[in-house]
Amino acid sequence: MRLLSSRARKIASQLASATRTPSRAGSGSSPLQRLAERAKLSWDRLEADHRDPSAQLRAWLKDMATHVASGDERGCPLANAAVELPEKDHPARRVIEAFKTAQRERLVELRTAAALAEPDMLADELFLLLEGARVAAQSIGPHGLVTGS
How does DSSP assign 16-57, residue by residue? Predict the structure, then answer.
């Protein structure tokens, strides 16, 4: 039984051809690459809106908490696509791994710039908490998550 959204299944089913052939729009990027590019633009907006690294982190955490609690999405589309790829050497995995690694590195850089202790450990903790929250929101629903009192 598949628990992925139809959008995630569609992306996963298009990966084999999309990672080898240019898109119809001519950008030459796969659906996953376009999702990663949108996420990067979101980070860029946070940086433009909040020059202070600590403020960027707080804004990102608020955005992610709102996103997870909304119940509108079925988790991270890139992680969902990875679940659908049984082949460990599938070309789309390189896109997913590069995206997830870049996300984690962005968190490390912000924590370092904010002069927080143990930026690598904090980045790992927040990264894993977000990934887990996305899964929990799907398994117990957004109302099962404590959103603050």
Answer: HHHTTS--TTS----HHHHHHHHHHHHHHHHHHH--SHHHHH
User: Please, are residues 138 and 74 in contact by the beta-carbon 8 Å criterion?
Assistant: yes
Q: Given a cut of 50, is residue 16 above it in pLDDT?
A: no
What is the dotted CATH code of the domain comprising 6-15+30-140? 1.10.357.10
Residue 124 C-beta-side C-alpha neighbours within 13 Å = 4
pLDDT of residue 55 exceeding 90: yes
Residue 27 has pLDDT above 50, yes or no: no
Q: What is the pLDDT of residue 7?
A: 47
Q: Which residues contact 149 (CB under 8 A, 6 or more apart)?
A: none
Dihedral angle, C-alpha 104, 32, 145, 72, nearest 10 °: 140
Residue 88, by phi and psi: left (phi above 0), alpha (psi -120 to 50) or beta? alpha
0.85 cut: is pTM over it? Answer: no
Please tell me the distance from the alpha carbon of residue 141 to that of residue 56, in angstroms, as a whole number.
27
